[in-house]
Write a structure and sequence with these properties.
Elements: E1 5-13, H1 20-26, H2 31-34, E2 35-43, H3 50-59, E3 67-71, H4 77-91, E4 96-101, H5 111-115, E5 124-128, H6 135-138, H7 143-160, E6 172-175, H8 176-180, H9 193-203, E7 208-212, H10 226-244, H11 272-279, E8 285-289, H12 295-304, E9 307-311, E10 344-348, H13 357-368, E11 375-381, H14 386-392, H15 415-424, E12 427-435, H16 439-443, H17 447-462, H18 464-467, E13 470-477, H19 481-505
Parallel strand pairs: 1-2, 1-4, 2-3, 5-7, 8-9, 8-10, 10-11
Antiparallel strand pairs: 4-6, 5-6, 11-13, 12-13
């Protein structure tokens, strides 16, 4: 026979001496038929006899389940108390943990029904008071709470691209395997912990199931301050949404199941890749250093008939479309190539990943010094982009998975500092171009992204430094002193030979 799943019924309790006994007594004994069931009560520093009542229940013979009662010497808050219970469940090897409230607001009798979806692979099951129309109000939910619940849930669904009937029920059961995959310990200790853990489950793409539950409002004391709570849950949802767009980064929402590749193929006409395609002459011999997936090289071959050699940076966890033999860490120096073969060298979104970009540019200039036809196309993020500046007004300078403040970036540039780095390394700047934000990539190809792109193009004409998301330079290496001296010596040899030949002819 298969072993029973281990179920922990976790009761959060605060000043619940009048209701805790009833909650414990209403837990269905039939759970023992399908689950190895235990109860954990954590009294969050109550001012009444909650702990004593729970302790007496744990040592009596009145309950069919083993009961463990703990007391926080210092109040940890609603979210902080949950963290302790979930940590206990994981540490003690339980398979499932069901959250109940010690005030009796949620019916323990619903536990068998709420546990059923775990047989089909659910990661979390939420009891919803909103699935059956009118049930919440008939159960005594005040009108202002009902309206607030519906409005906040609508906002959160829109921001998170979710479809939950309710974000604010406290009746929940989690798989401890799912809890182990999300950083719930980083969440708030306050009441919006419940929203943050939903965001983490959604981000981790863990399946959530909702089932209807009855609504009960009695004379329990509500410790939630509605206005700050509403503000906090909306802010949490907005942060999570902005993180998906690469604007903000918060470690507690960094729990996606797969790593997003560093770069997606950028085929819109304003991307550095597209601008390079438009500027590379047909039939050129091109070297693409730091290519990602080979998309740009494929376009140059198809559209311009170019011969393209590609060397990729190590993929850093993301998938690369380039053969491993062509991987090269530019921090160790340039690959051993015949640099005189190339008409164009492409360094798109690479320089910011290098530990010493100035030394790299020096090496590149020396490598190309004897190649008079070579030009370099080089791009990087503009850290002075207006959104980054705006966020800094609020103390936000957060590195993330994507965007200007990518976690893998080693150096950040403005137009001025990028031009100085290039010219001081011995390159002449032939063209400077400001690149607008990748709105179609972030928001999808729709009317809004196209409108934002058009506005951004116009604003770049007003101020490249403020409104350019990226910087693109077309540069040409100046001859080095060594190459100039060699040229002078070669020229002198030729002139002397001509002079000598002229003297003999006389």
């Amino acid at each position: 026979m298969a072993a029973k799943s281990r179920l922990l019924i976790f009761i959060v309790a605060y000043n619940a001496e009048k209701t805790l006994g009833s909650v414990l007594g209403r837990i269905p004994s039939g759970l023992l038929e399908g689950y190895e069931t235990e109860i954990l009560v954590i009294d969050d520093g109550s001012n009444d006899a909650t702990f004593d009542l729970g302790h007496r229940a744990s040592v009596s013979d009145g309950l069919p389940f083993p009961v463990c009662v703990l007391r926080n010497p210092v109040n940890q808050g609603y979210g902080g108390n949950q963290k302790l219970g979930y940590h206990y469940a994981i540490q003690e090897g339980f398979d499932l943990v069901a959250l109940l409230h010690g005030d009796g607001q949620y019916a323990p009798e619903c536990l068998p029904d709420l546990l059923a979806p775990f047989r089909d692979g659910a990661a979390a099951v939420f009891g919803s008071r909103m699935m059956k129309p009118g049930e919440a109000r008939r159960g005594g939910m005040p009108l202002y709470k009902f309206a607030g619940n519906r409005i906040l849930t609508w906002i959160e669904n829109k921001l998170l691209n979710a479809h939950l009937s309710e974000f604010h029920s406290g009746y929940r059961i989690y798989s401890t395997r799912a809890l182990s995959r999300i950083p719930f310990d980083r969440n708030s200790n306050n009441f919006h912990f419940d929203t943050e853990i939903i965001i983490q489950l959604l981000t981790a793409r863990l399946p959530i199931v909702e089932l209807p539950i009855p609504t009960f409002y009695g004379d329990e004391i509500c410790y939630v301050n509605g206005v700050p709570y509403a503000f906090n849950v909306v802010v949490a949802a907005m942060k999570a949404r902005m993180q998906t767009l690469g604007v903000l980064y918060d470690r507690k929402f960094d729990c996606a199941p797969i790593q997003i590749p560093k770069y997606a193929a950028k085929r819109n006409s304003d991307s550095p890749q597209a601008l390079c395609v438009s500027r590379v002459p047909e039939g050129s011999r091109v070297l693409d250093l730091g290519c990602d997936g080979g998309d740009l090289g494929a376009r140059l071959r198809e559209e311009k008939g170019c011969v393209v050699d590609e060397w990729a940076l190590p993929p850093d966890g993301a998938e690369s479309g380039v053969d491993e033999a062509l991987l090269h860490d530019l921090n160790t120096g340039l690959p051993d190539l015949d640099w005189n073969r190339y008409d164009r060298v492409l360094l798109l979104d690479v320089i910011e990943h290098l530990n010493r970009p100035e030394e790299f540019l020096d090496s590149l200039r020396r490598a190309l010094a004897l190649n008079p036809k070579a030009e370099v196309m080089i791009s990087t993020a503009n850290v002075a982009f207006f959104i980054t500046r705006f966020m800094m007004l609020f103390g936000q300078f957060n590195y993330g998975k994507r965007g200007i403040l990518d976690l893998t970036h080693r150096r950040l540039f403005t137009f001025g500092s990028f031009r100085r780095a290039v010219t001081q390394a011995g390159f002449d700047i032939l063209e400077t171009r400001g690149v607008p934000g990748p709105y179609p990539l972030a928001l999808g190809d729709n009317w809004l992204s196209r409108a934002l792109l058009g506005v951004n193009r116009l604003l770049i004409h007003v101020s490249k430094g403020l409104f350019s998301y990226q910087i693109l330079l077309r540069i040409k290496p100046r001859p080095t002193l060594a190459s100039l001296l060699r040229s002078a010596m070669d020229e002198s040899v030729v002139r002397r030979a001509k002079s000598h030949a002229a003297g003999l002819s006389r």
